[in-house]
């Protein structure tokens, strides 16, 4: 199926926007590859549907999640962790599609992090009024590797803070096709997503999908 919004997606010009040392946004990066990404998400979520996990203290997350890769990120009353198995059905998470892997490696490389070997991709689904509160990604064993985060669908405001939760937060508009990479001195910066506003995307409808690649094991 051809999902592309552009007559010739290879015409789209990407550009880079710095956030701070170790963090940047690759604008439009994934637009030429949107068909492969959307096909992959469809295949993964048909067998491992998006679900609203509970935080360790019992709150239902407003973002729905699924995963692919060697391990997937899960949360329940026992805490946050990576698991090789989908807790909904006990099956191994699906293999990360080759297209996902190579795009994540390429994005990391362009951001100045060569040799990225993602073994986990968390797929987040946001709808109107979903949000992700400020947090650090610190459940990964390899904090030397960056986080590579793809945005698809309706826009979001990405919140990028400091090393303390109470540090000031910068706000970045993220659109379909944008990729945020943070690593090195920025790897443990607090970040989150502000309340999603009602919108519709021509390919994805009223949702935002975020793919977050990590080197977790
Ligand atoms: O949706 C986003 O842009 C960020 C997602 C995120 O920070 C996470 O899944 O840990
Ligand atoms: Mn995160």
TrEMBL record:
- State where substrate binds: 73, 80-82, 139, 165
Q: Which InterPro entries match?
A: Alkb, AlkB-like, AlkB-like_sf, Oxoglu/Fe-dep_dioxygenase_dom
Q: Name one GO cellular component term.
A: cytoplasm
Q: Which Pfam families match?
A: 2OG-FeII_Oxy_2
Q: Name one GO biological process term.
A: oxidative RNA demethylation
Judging by the UniProt lineage, the source's domain of life is Bacteria
Which UniProt key words apply to this protein? Dioxygenase, Iron, Metal-binding, Oxidoreductase
Q: List required co-factors.
A: Fe(2+)
Question: Which residues are Fe cation-binding?
Answer: 135, 137, 191
- Cofactor notes: Binds 1 Fe(2+) ion per subunit.
Query: A GO molecular-function term, please?
Result: oxidative RNA demethylase activity
Q: Does the keyword Iron apply?
A: yes
Annotated binding of 2-oxoglutarate, by residue = 124-126, 208-214
Location of the Fe2OG dioxygenase domain = 117-217
Provide the protein name: DNA alkylation damage repair protein AlkB
Organism (species)? Undibacterium pigrum
């Amino acid at each position: 199926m051809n999902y592309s919004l552009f007559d010739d997606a290879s015409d789209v010009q990407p550009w880079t926007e710095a956030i701070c040392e170790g963090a940047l946004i690759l604008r439009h990066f994934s637009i030429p590859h949107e068909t492969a990404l959307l096909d992959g998400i469809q295949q993964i979520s048909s067998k491992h549907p998006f679900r609203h996990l509970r935080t360790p203290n019992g709150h239902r997350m407003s973002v729905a999640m699924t995963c692919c890769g060697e391990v997937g990120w899960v949360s329940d009353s026992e805490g946050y962790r990576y698991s090789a198995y989908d807790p909904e059905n006990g099956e191994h998470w699906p293999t990360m599609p080759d297209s996902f892997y190579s795009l994540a490696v390429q994005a990391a490389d362009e951001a100045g992090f060569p040799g990225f070997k993602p073994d986990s991709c968390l797929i987040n689904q946001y709808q109107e009024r979903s949000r992700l509160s400020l947090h650090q990604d610190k459940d990964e064993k390899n904090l030397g590797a960056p986080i590579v985060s793809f945005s698809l669908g309706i826009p979001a405001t990405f919140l990028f803070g400091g090393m303390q939760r109470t540090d000031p937060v910068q706000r970045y508009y993220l659109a379909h096709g944008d990729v945020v990479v943070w690593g090195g001195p920025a790897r443990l910066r607090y970040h989150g997503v502000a309340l999603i506003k009602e919108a519709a995307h021509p390919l994805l409808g009223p949702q935002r999908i975020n793919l977050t690649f990590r080197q977790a094991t």
